[in-house]
Amino acid sequence: MLPQFFSLLLWVAFASAFLTKPVAPSDDSFYEVPQNISGYKNGDIINVRNTPVQVRSLIFPMNVKNSWQVLIRSEDTFGNPNAFVATILEPYNAIPSKVWSYQMWEDANDIDCAPSYALLSGASYDTINSQTEIPIIQYGLSKGWYVVVPDYEGPKSAFTVGRQSGQAILDGIRAALSSGYFTGIDKDAKVGLYGYSGGALASGWAAQIQPSYAPEIKDHIVGAAIGGWVTNVTSTALAADGTLFAGLIANGFNGIYSEYSQYKDVLDRNLDAGKKADFYKAKSLCLVGSATKYLFQKFFSGINPYIIPGEDYFNIPINQKIFANITAALTKEDGVPEIPMFVFHGQDDQVAPVEQPTRAYENFCSWGAPSIEWSLGANSGHGLELLFGTGAGLAWLEKRFDGHLPIEGCSKTVRTTNLEYPGAEAPYIQILEDYVQGIFGAKVGLDTSDISNTSLLVKVVAYAISKFVGLIGPLPLKRDGAMLFQEKAGNRTVDEMYKGLEDVKKLMEDNGIDPLSVLRGTPITL
């Protein structure tokens, strides 16, 4: 089976070179803000079309019943009208009363990195980071949820500008609820929000400003599950400096000053003259491209940083105002969520240092937020929490869709990892099975899985992985002084774990045991 699978991968890579390539947003007139934009209200559908090509999952096409791109009226941070595109996906088992607003971590200042483009078969692999999220989207589709994926950064690709992003998300929900004449979505449908990292930044802002910006949709929203919650862009920029995540600084700053363009000269005159061209190249790079280009680069520290004043750049008066405006939960007047929230976060998050989302959580709670459940993974960083916390976020969200009530008030729980969250293991099995089935053309929602419970074996494995991570702790992501995995875990530990996994693999191969059957809890005979 494995050789055939790799042969299929090679075939897809070869065949994709000959597929019809979708037009990039920068060259697609569908994305243009119309001249009569002021004639529409926020959330109005300006234009709609079927996706120009088939949508895809990670690398492979995805077989959904219908997919649309919708141009929606919204507004920017300053109240000026604009428009953005959202993608609406309908599974074969669609439930008109359930809608999932999924915010991808686009994390770029280039409209050609937009989720609506990343979702298309044949789109540039520069958008690979967004594509890695589509198997998670398949999870919701398999459960019958319509999925709305907004290009929440807007027409200026204003990455990290929370108010712009939150408004677009809310207007995307408004549009989805009014789209029944072509999607079949019930106007009274329930809606859940989800996002990780940049998607959490955007989703958190949507929750914060919903009471003032879109009060009429409150009763539709069952909750927001967010992880790797970026609440303070200044903190994130300083934490990312000189690390694997340094590219976020270039992408983020270009995004900020695309929105606050009247102050772009403040950035320009504080950039090292010899590095300006390199810095502005981020405007044409998606996340993976910028991560590669700016790997371990220093923007504020070191002998020759990109930004001459270093950390003092944030003390320039106009910058103090700008960065305060894009900080979540800074003042009660900025808004307090009225919808249930679930936050999963890593104690050692290198992108969103835990002190800042903790501040936001504590502020919201003290200001009267009705329900916030905080689940902290004691041994996760930003990357590991994506792996270990996703199941928790999805399990929580499914309970909200199923009508289970959230907690009242605020609650914080620390776990070894969020793999230990009740029910967190089931989504991983479903995501894996749905993706594998999708490779072979399965109709999403009809031929794919809907897994809510798992075998005892799966629960034990998830618990064991969590405890193993607790044993070795988080891995550093700075180049200087970084330790190898073997140095942290110990060579003997790694060797023994590898040997044990090889023994299990050989046992399965020798006896013709299907690993997926084992995960499902199917009885086996040796």
From TrEMBL:
Record flagged with keyword Signal: yes
Domain of life: Eukaryota
Pfam families given in the database record: LIP
Gene3D superfamilies in the cross-refs: 1.10.260.130, alpha/beta hydrolase
Gene Ontology process terms (BP): lipid catabolic process
Catalytic activity: a triacylglycerol + H2O = a diacylglycerol + a fatty acid + H(+)
Leader sequence segment: 1-17
Signal recorded as keyword: yes
Keyword terms: Signal
GO molecular-function terms, A-Z: triacylglycerol lipase activity
UniProt-listed PANTHER family: LIPASE 5 (PTHR34853:SF1), PTHR34853
Protein name listed in UniProt: Triacylglycerol lipase
Natural source organism: Candidozyma auris (Yeast)
